[in-house]
Amino acid sequence: MADSFNFELVSPERLLLSATVTEVVIPGTDGEMTVMAHHAPTMTTIKPGVVTVQTSEGQADRFVVFGGFADILPDGCTLLAESAVSVADIDRDDLAQRLQDAKEDLADATSDSDKQKAQEYLDQLTTLNNAIMAA
Amino acid sequence: MPSLKDLKNRIASVKATQKITKAMQMVAAAKLRRAQEAAEAARPYSQRMAAVMANIAEAVGGGDDAPRLMTGTGSDDTHLLVVCTAERGLCGGFNSQIARFAREHVRRLQSDGKTVKIICVGKKGYDILRREFASLIIERIDFREVKQMSFAQAETVAGKVTDLFNEGGFDVCTLFYSEFKSVISQVPTAQQLIPASAATSEDDAGAAAVYDYEPGATEILEDLLPRSIKVQIFRALLENVAGEMGAKMSAMDNATRNAGEMIDKLSMSYNRQRQAQITKELIEIISGAEAL
Q1: What pLDDT is recorded for position B63?
Q2: Where are the domains of chain A?
Q3: What is the chain A residue with the closest CA to B234?
Q4: CB A12 within 8 A of CB B152
Q5: Chain B residues with CB-CB distance to A69 below 8 A
Q6: Identity of the residue in A10, A41, A71 whose CB atom sits nearest the CB atom of B210
Q7: In terms of C-beta density within 10 A (0-12 exposed, 13-18 middle, 19 or more buried), how is residue A52 classed?
Q8: What's the mean pLDDT in B150-179?
Q9: Of B125, B184, B238, B243, which one's alpha carbon is 20 to 30 angstroms from that of A93?
Q10: Tens digit of each residue's pLDDT (9 = 90 or more) over B54-82
Q11: Does the beta-carbon distance from A12 to B220 stay under 8 Å?
Q12: ∠ CA B136-B139-B145 to the nearest 5 degrees?
């Protein structure tokens, strides 16, 4: 059996999950990464996406996160999410609202770098939306 | 000398007031518990955030490429004060304490020849501060309709602050709020938001881990700083709510007790007067009988 480590998912409002897990898939800004025990210390920002947690009891939990960052240590991992919900509780209307906001942000963006940022965010959200709608 | 009827009316009205203050005290107690829970639930995030910030700040150091939110603009001529107070009164000295603290700060800055700008969060602080500094207040944010303080509110405030900073509206930003020590003690506190004060890492031995940064340390820091501002504001708002409720609870407790004393006093004089009247009537009857 794979080694387990401690994983915490924290949103500003509360501690969502604190469990012993064997692996976690994190949607990093530079690509998805799977964190297992004894991972090299890493700090990464995350993009909107799905975090998949494999607990040591063999149970899989999925959470939708919207931005934030992850602090990975050999013996633990902490994910600080701007906002996070369990996939089961995701509010479709809320997601649609976020998509709408992102589109408006893109329309409002004036400078090139702002435009690029808004476009990237919108793309990430769209991908996430499609993934959830399909599920 | 008030008549018996007047006294009776007053007793009735004080009793009604006592009922109201008692109800308000109980409501505040219930809300206090919720606010405390919210503040506690938010603690892990802000702690982790502080730890990570300290870590990254160490890695990036005070280099030239460090984000401006961290290094500041290089001058400190214009100060922005974000004063967070409650939306409602009837909570003892809670609002005036914060306002007084902020006012002293403004005076000090002005005597040093600095420009001061104020953002008021919460209605009560605005009401107090506008008497003196109406021209300095550039923005007021109201959370009257908000039932439960959530991160979204902190985001609105933080968004305004960072936007203003990016436009070059100020050099130094300080947050004023009331730290929740206990139900009976709230301490007005000033906290510097921008430039981010170098977080003091609690244990230097623990900072040994060498991190891989993805993308780069500077990029992460740039992403992190606005977030950290949001978190600090969020924490201040939560502490404020808890403090307000604590202050309100003890203020209402005092009010209830005072009303009780008042009722005792009024009932005493009511009874005395009633007694005097009875005696007077008796004397009248007896002296009337004697005269016959």
Answers
A1: 59
A2: 5-87, 91-134
A3: A12
A4: no
A5: 52, 220, 223-224, 227
A6: A41
A7: middle
A8: 88
A9: B238
A10: 777 777 765 556 677 777 777 788 899 99
A11: no
A12: 140
